[in-house]
Amino acid sequence: MKTAASAGFLQLFSLEVVHQYLSGGPYGTFTLSPMGATEKVLQRFGWSAGQTDNTFTLYANPTRAAATLKPGPAVPLNAPDLCFAIAFRDPDFARYTDIPMQPGCVLAFAADSTSQKKKHPPVSVKATLSPADLTPVQTRQFQCPVAGGAAPGDLCIVRPGGEEVMPLPTPRGGKVTVDPSVLDLGLYHIIYKKKIIYRFIKLNNHFFLQSDFILSISVNLMMSVFQRYLVKPASQKRKPLNGPLCARLTLPARSTIWRYDVFNHQGADALDFEILPAAPASVSAPSAALPVFHPVKGMKGPGGETSVSFESASPIPLAARPTQRLKLMRKNLPLIDELPTPGLDFAAPPGASALRSSLLIYL
Q: Per-residue pLDDT tens for 143-171?
């Protein structure tokens, strides 16, 4: 990968990181790379990325063609469809931020078709991709489990600001299925009886669950869960809205086990540490008991050290994820006033009763 724009390369998008935990550096720990459909097209056309402090710029050569590319229908790549990943290479990145992610994780961004269009007009890059160049079709469902007895109108999908996108009829079995092909890019809430039960974002036809409005996705999750496939419309009249590539995600459970792994505890005994509920958040929480944590076998760190680890004694409902707040205590003194929410790792097999969520903490 080149570090600066080359002759003949066109600037596709410039992204400035303004999050309070990222602005100010250290910027040397970040790298920018394309992902999703953006990556697939640019692999055949050549690309480079530049970085100046907290501004990342992606360039591509729209005139370069691969010799092995077979003729096929043109696939336009527009600015609202561009999808990026900023990887944090520093294994000690957790010291600089409270973003709930592990070393080696990425933040994913995309140009929003409404807020970014004026600053960054769409750039048309024609790529002659044929179906043979894309991955096989594999259907997945995005399912939202809800409590039984939901009445019509209890469920809907909205964008921030109160604009209703889609009312969801109450299905049999207490689950509602969302068709990704009918939603635009952006941040969405699934509302159940006027309470937010899921936050997710759609980037380049990919759905990602959100935690506290900060999107964290592990590299393993990207490789194993979000599988691209070619959307084949049921009829000629029904066409995908945002290009030919999309993915769907199935949640195998309604709850998740929370795990915290604490490193660099300087030889302190595991019994010195304790995880307790912190002050309640300003957002009203669903009626659920606060989690109780117990010590479990630690894990080995990159330097061979063993963590002091805790897991919730019982699965925590997914609906409680945005509202539960916890603190880390050491010898009855507060060490971390408010622990970040662990990130879902989707390691549970289909049919499992609970997902798993984990977070590494470096002291």
A: 455 555 556 666 666 655 555 566 665 55
More confident residue, 119 or 144: 144
Residue 219, domain member (yes or no): no
Mean pLDDT, rounded, of the chain = 52
Measured distance CA(296)–CA(50) in Å, rounded? 44
Cβ neighbours of 198 (radius 10 Å): 21
Question: If 0-12 CB within 10 Å is exposed, 13-18 middle and 19+ buried, where does residue 233 land?
Answer: exposed
Residues 242, 260: one domain?
A: no
Examine residue 217 and state whether it is found in any structural domain, yes or no. no
- Residue 94 contacts by C-beta under 8 Å, 6 or more apart in sequence? 101, 102, 103, 360, 361, 362
Which residue bears the tokens 């290479």? 89
- Domain of residue 67, residue span: 10-133
3-class secondary structure, 40: helix
Nearest Cα to 305, choosing from 265, 357, 269, 363? 265
- What distance in Å separates the CA atoms of residue 101 and residue 320, rounded to the nearest whole number? 19
Same domain, 203 and 114: no
Tokens describing residue 1: 């990968």
CA distance readout (Å), 162 to 90, 165, 190, 213, 331: 39, 9, 11, 17, 45
Phi and psi angles of residue 172, each rounded to the nearest 5 degrees, phi first:
-75, 145
Give which of 118, 120, 109, 93 is closest to 17, Cα–Cα. 109
Judged by phi (left if over 0) then psi (alpha if -120 to 50, else beta), residue 128 lies in beta
> Cα separation of 149 and 130, whole Å?
47
Contact 259, 342 (CB under 8 A): yes
Same domain for 127 and 17: yes
